[in-house]
Amino acid sequence: MNGFTRIPESRWLRSRDLKLEESSAPASFYTSQEQFELEREQVFRRAWLSVARVEELPNAGDFVNLDILTLKAKLILVRGDDGEVRGFHNSCAHRGVMVVQKEKGNAAQFRCPYHAWVYGTDGKLRTIPGADMFPDVKCGHDGLPPVHTGIWNGFIFVNFAKEPEESLEEFLGEAGVLFSDLPFEDYNHELRFPQPLATNWKHISNAFTEGYHLGFLHKNSLPFVFDRENPLTDYPTVRFMGRHSANITGANSKWQPTKPVMRFALETGFAADAELEPAGKKLMDHPAINPDRIDPIMEEAINIFPNTQIQVLRNGYLWYQYWPSGPNEMLWDVRLFLDRAPHSFRTEFAEASYVAASRDVLAEDSSMGELQQQGLISGGLERVKYGENEFMLRHFAQTLTNYIEGKV
Ligand code: FES
Ligand SMILES: [Fe+2]
Asked: Which CDD domains does this chain map to (predicted)?
């Protein structure tokens, strides 16, 4: 459990110590169709991918319909009468029609609109009109094509391999053990912002694993982070757990809200501020989070390879999923979970302020991602450079390449 790599004191030693000396990557790592296809087939079709929370399916018969952009996969997740959550391709066993059209709901059974084949919530065929026309199809046996599912700490993962190379537990390794009982289930007030972007998915992932840009790009939108004593906004703690990782963004202990409107919003505890105690802070106080007790802290981000980041905030958590649909396009699914819904004018206002402030930060990152991709597609720059302080980008590039090559 304590075997993960912690960064040493001097940031200039990190990359060498971690054997992450690759200080650049070809532009094609971000722009080429071939690289995208390798990622789609050798990463997204092999790795465990987080797609939903168990709170979305509390009761037997509850289902959600998912569109997994990267693999053009249409899935339904459904909780059966036995309490199990199962995943299926939304594709009728007869001639393939998408059986379930509703985005989510509760159903006792699913009926295909074309020839009325009926499936139970366990995915098995129940009835076929004119069953004797199909002597080889067995009700109670054949059914919707299944996809492997697993649950870790309330997150539902799917795996598209015929037979996954590792169980979800093995795939998550130490990170899965360390963060296994973070109380995500206590945060159920959700705000969701799916953003289609004209960029490579790795740029957005990269933007949340380096602090270098925070004092420049987000100087105004994250005023409580910039600290003259840490001018490149180095992360005070980074942990590598095999292919997964975690990184802490600190905050400036001397910062005070200057505008009355900001103070008003922060006092409710809705904002991920540097100073004030929010009402619900169980996630941030968990012993697995912030092992060095950095204070003040803005967030600790848990990076689950390949496309998930969970940011533990002072007032809840953010769950990012990055879904590429080509080298130059992606969906950034942003899900924010807070511990309570607003319950007064003041808390309504505070939440709106927090969301507006987050929107500015995210829009800054999105716009850089799009400008970066346009700059790279232009074709003049042969290699992007990773600084010593961008060692998490090196780690991710190396992990991704190793995974594609079957080395991790
Ligand atoms: S395609 Fe579904 S019943 Fe025919
Ligand atoms: Fe950013």
From this structure: RHO_alpha_C, Rieske_RO_Alpha_N
